[in-house]
Sequence to fold (341 residues):
Amino acid sequence: MPDPGQREPRVAGPGANAAGAGPEGDAPRKAGVTAPEGGGLVESVPNFSEGRRGEVVDEIVAAFTSAHPEVLVLDRSSDPDHNRSVLTLAGPGQALVEAAVSGAAACARLIDLNRHQGVHPRIGALDVLPFVPLDPGTDGAPLALEAGRRLVEEVGIPVYFYGAAARMRARAELPNVRAGGFEELVRAAERDPARAPDLGGPGLHPTAGATAVGARPFLIAYNVDLATQDVSLAKRIARAVRARDGGLPAVRALGVRLERRGMVQVSMNLLDFRVTGLASAFAAVAELAARAGVEVVESEIVGLVPEAALAGVDPESLKLDGLPGDLVVEERVRRAKATRP
Fold:
C-alpha cells in the first residue's frame, strides 16, 4: 500500500493508483465524443468511497473488472483526502451492468460509511454509477435503470436515479440527490418520502448507504490545487466560478482542504467542455487565487476526457498533472483493445 501522502503517476489498468477525485455530476447537454470503432461502446465511471486502503481498492477494482470478459479498464484514480476512488470502464452495455453488480457487492462488503471520513460528499459505499454512451446512437438510461434494479434485487442497495435516468425532475441534478450526505440521508429517507430512494428502502443500507445511478453525457472532473492551507479561500473561489452562483456556465465547484498535502483544492465538474473548457476554468481559478497572493501548485484531470477537450490546450500553462495522451478516452480505448487477450 503506498504512503497516503505520496502521489503516483496515472497508469491504465488494475495496478494503477493516482491521486485525485472530483465531484461527480450530471451534464445538461450532450458533449461530443466518439470512441474509435464506437460500435455501441458505453463508458461507466463508478465512484466508490475508499481512497486510503490500497488493498481494499484493489479488491473492489478486481470485482468490477473481472465480472465480464468484455469490460475494458481505461483508468483508475484514488485520493486519500477525498477518500474516494474513480474507476473508468468501457464495454458493451450489458457487460458494464454485470460489472456494476459485482462491484457494488464488493463495495457493500468492504466499506462502512459509519467509519468513513473524507472531504468529498457521498451517500454510498458505491456512491455514484453513471453510464456514458461513447457512441452517439447509444442510450445510457436503460442501462442505468437495469443496473439500479439489479443493485436493489441482488445486492440489497437502495438506488436513486439521476441525469437522463431520473424519475423525478428534482433528481436530474446529482447535488440534489446527495444533499446532506449519508449522515443526513440515512435519517431523512425513512421519514420523508421526498428523500426516499427510487428503488429499495425506504431506509438506506445501514453501512453501504445508497447508490446514485445515472445516465449522462461526458463531463470533466478537474481539480486545481492552491499553495495555501486557507480552505475559506478555496470555498470563496468555488462560489465565484460555479454556475449556480453566477460564475462560469456549466461548472460545478467546491473548495476542500487536502490535509495530507498541506494545501487546498478547487474541485470542479465541467459539465460541457464546449461551454467552459479546461483553459477557461483554470484561468478563472488562477486569477482569483492570484488576487489573494496565492499560487497554483498544479491542476489535474480525474478520469478521462474526450480528445476534443484538449484541442488547443497547452498542458504546461495549466500546470497539468499527467501526459495529455494518457488522459484521452479515445486513446485509452485503442490501447485497451490492443492489449486485450
Remarks:
- Residues 1-22, 25-38 have pLDDT under 50 and may be disordered.
